Amino acid sequence: MTEVGTVRRSVRERYAAVAAAVSDSSATGCCGPTCAARELDDRGVFGAGRYDPAVTAGLPDEAVLASLGCGNPLMVAELREGERVLDLGSGGGIDVLLSAGRVGPSGRVFGVDMTAEMLTLARANAARAGVSNVEFLEGRIEAVPLPDGAVDVVISNCVINLSTDKPSVLAEMFRVLVPGGRIGIADVVAENHLTPAQRAERGSFVECIAGALSRAEYLDGLAAAGFVDTDVVFTHEVAPGMHGAIIRGVKPLARATTDAGPASEPEWRGLLPLSQVGAAGGCCSSGDQGSCCGASAEDGCCGGSTGPAGSCGCR
């Protein structure tokens, strides 16, 4: 097995064990879920301790106990009613369930995870919580099983550092976002002076330490993927020179067609729900034109050849 395969298997086995510990407290040799939580994180730099208890009070205990994150990405994601959200490495579903409450019944939240045991736990937690606007998908964060432009926001909690192909993860985040979409990521990030070898001395890959990017590497990677308005802010130390951090970024709005370059999607496409964007590239589908098209949208779409006043569409 290759080194990449070995790392991926180790990560999968660790999180499968976490799901088992939460689902069956006897797996930890304890008599209750509080012991399982203590076994999963006894230092306070990872796990449910990173959330305000008032925020998680309404969630199933199993969702809270399964959290091994290093922050709370919802603190910066600023989710709004009706948005579509993707959680990369959704685990037991804590951030998916919290997001579902914020986007409301008109929104939808997708969780992607590669561990079957975590997916089973997350689906059970959604059922316990009575949440229906969520969907948990099996897959890898390097190859997200969603189409281009499927979501408005991407969140993730201490998972990207576990990937052995981080450029692909960042590229996938960019791909699945609509123009104008944004990311709110919690992850472990190293200070710039630490070499990869020095990071590995501070902890293993599956402990979310050895695989962490430096702050400069993160910013460079986001820029290479196409993100703008990026920032990496340290929140708390998890090991010497290693920090929990919040990462932000925005996918630029597409520009209108110019003589200097190829045609691109008009800016307004990134501002509308997918259901209101015409599949053939028109302003809107015929059934939605009355509600989603305005003069500026028509002009950008139709190149100035708009329909008569009071109508929607191109001549």
UniProtKB/TrEMBL annotation:
Known EC number: 2.1.1.137
Enzyme class: transferase
GO annotation terms (biological process): methylation
Keyword Acetylation: no
Catalysis performed (reactions): arsenic triglutathione + [thioredoxin]-dithiol + S-adenosyl-L-methionine + 2 H2O = methylarsonous acid + [thioredoxin]-disulfide + 3 glutathione + S-adenosyl-L-homocysteine + H(+); arsenic triglutathione + 3 [thioredoxin]-dithiol + 3 S-adenosyl-L-methionine = trimethylarsine + 3 [thioredoxin]-disulfide + 3 glutathione + 3 S-adenosyl-L-homocysteine + 3 H(+); arsenic triglutathione + 2 [thioredoxin]-dithiol + 2 S-adenosyl-L-methionine + H2O = dimethylarsinous acid + 2 [thioredoxin]-disulfide + 3 glutathione + 2 S-adenosyl-L-homocysteine + 2 H(+)
Domain Methyltransferase: 80-216
Keywords: Methyltransferase, S-adenosyl-L-methionine, Transferase
InterPro entries given in the database record: Arsenite_MeTrfase-like, Methyltranfer_dom, SAM-dependent_MTases_sf
GO function term, MF aspect, one: arsenite methyltransferase activity
Assigned protein family: Belongs to the methyltransferase superfamily. Arsenite methyltransferase family.
NCBIfam families named among the record's database cross-references: PRK11873.1 (NF008823)
Entry protein name: Arsenite methyltransferase
